[in-house]
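Predict the 3D structure for this chain.
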Amino acid sequence: MRVDTQPPRPSITFIVAAYNLADHVASTLDSILQVAIALDEIIVVDDGSQDRTVDVVRGHEGLRQAPCPWQLIEQANSGVASSRLTGLASATREYVWFLDGDDVIDSDQAQDAIARLASIRPDILVFDFRLWWDEAEPRQIESPVRRHKPNAIETDPDISLAATLDDASCSLWARIVLRTLAQKVMPDKTPKWSMYEDLAVMPHLVANADSLYYCPVQVIKYRQRASSLSQKRSAAHSNVLVRSAIWGSDAALESEASAASGRTFTLARAAGQRLIARKFVEAMRHCRESNASPLAIKRLILDPVNTALKPHFKSTWESLHESGQSGDRKVARHISSSVTSPYWYAWSQWLTGLTKKRR
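Done. Predicted structure below.
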């Protein structure tokens, strides 16, 4: 008699955050049902939608015949981070998989990733994705190459966190996370703002994980919509982007808790500074695209970065307190000379040019 040697499949809670996604949420649910089994559960959290999202979920024929339990939770509009925490509080399975209500799972690729999850049982399983535009001419772009070692288990949190921060791609929907880890970390480490919260919280999950496995298969088709918050460009959005990078990079700072557990983050601390630099430059580009005023840029972007990096580059950032244009130029020179990152150099050149335009 043949004996099945395949390890048992771990149970998964699929948590779907949805807001005004009546045109897309059915496709998301269809894709989940292609990989869900009886052990799993599906939780849809509607974040106060003003369209027919709730009706679509309630009337979804596949959910009525789902192999696993499911529930719909309705709440007042509070943002995607709040929706995820609401779903997480109700999750009961071994792992959680957070999805947006317009994502689509590639079932074949997902089965490969879940098979690795079953055999390896890491705290965090990382996989790839495709960016997907379907509102005009359909097109897809593969996700960037990750710094994690492919098809390998990593048990050094410093290495895992450094790779995560250097990737600068921290999307929750591109990970399956141990539920107990998520419930331990996310309630305290998820920021209250409604954009770029993945960038803020994922590094803290990695910093607290005992193991991470990277499976280089493209599991998620991540829909790009012109109406989504992440596509907006303004000084305010740029401020949140930089704050999220700072928040996430704080995971690499040694605290009493990390010292007590024997976790040190030498590689990750440097990677965190690089992440802030990259997102700072990206935020500056967003400001330029939105024609934000130099004053708005300085008030909304420089202040949080000054606060975050002053312990590391005190002499540089104290120059921000000097009044007038000469102070701005001095900051630019200090950054380009004291930090070797090309991102900082690019920003310093841009800031110097901006200052000259203001004269």
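The chain has two domains: 12-231, 235-358.
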